[in-house]
C-alpha cells in the first residue's frame, strides 16, 4: 500500500494595522449555537468591560483551534513551568450584545 505524501501549501496572510498590532484581553466569553461558536475577547477594568475582538468560527475549526492552543500551552509549560490550575471562571457582569 502506497503512502500519500502531504502537500505543503503556503499562504501569504495580510492584515490591517489594527489586526497586526493585536488586541489585549484579560477575559474571554464563549457562546454557541448549532452552527457556530462565538468567542469574545474582552478587556475588563472595573467597572467597565470592552469587547476587543469577536471571532465567529465553525465547531470543527474551533476544535482544531483548541487542539493547537492545548499544544501551545503544553510547550509553554515545558519551557516556563506549569501554570496553576484554574479554579473558577471570571466573567463581566453583563453579556455583550
List key phrases describing it.
97 residues
Explain what this protein looks like in three dimensions:
The chain has about 100 residues and is of the alpha+beta class. The chain is built from 2 helices and 3 strands; from the N terminus they run H-E-E-E-H. The chain has a domain at about 20-80. It has helices spanning about 15-20, 60-80; strands at about 25-30, 35-45, 50-55. Strands 1-2-3 form a 3-stranded antiparallel β-sheet. The termini are far apart. The model has no long low-confidence stretch (mean pLDDT about 90).
* Rg over alpha carbons: 18 Å
Q: Largest beta sheet: what is the strand line-up?
A: 1-2-3
Tally of helical segments: 2
Largest β-sheet summary: 3 strands, antiparallel
> Which class of secondary structure composition applies to the elements?
alpha+beta
Mean pLDDT: 88
Compact description:
This protein has 97 residues and is α+β, with helices and mostly antiparallel strands. 28% of the residues lie in helices and 26% in strands.
Amino acid at each position: 500500500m502506497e503512502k500519500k505524501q502531504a502537500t505543503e501549501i503556503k499562504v501569504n496572510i495580510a492584515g490591517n494595522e489594527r489586526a497586526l498590532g493585536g488586541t489585549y484581553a484579560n477575559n474571554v466569553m464563549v457562546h454557541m449555537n448549532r452552527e457556530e461558536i462565538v468567542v469574545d475577547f474582552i478587556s475588563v477594568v472595573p467597572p467597565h468591560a470592552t469587547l476587543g475582538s469577536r471571532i465567529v468560527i465553525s465547531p470543527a475549526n474551533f476544535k482544531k483551534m483548541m487542539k493547537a492552543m492545548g499544544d501551545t500551552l503544553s510547550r509553554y509549560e515545558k519551557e516556563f513551568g506549569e501554570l496553576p490550575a484554574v479554579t473558577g471562571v471570571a466573567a463581566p457582569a453583563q453579556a455583550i450584545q
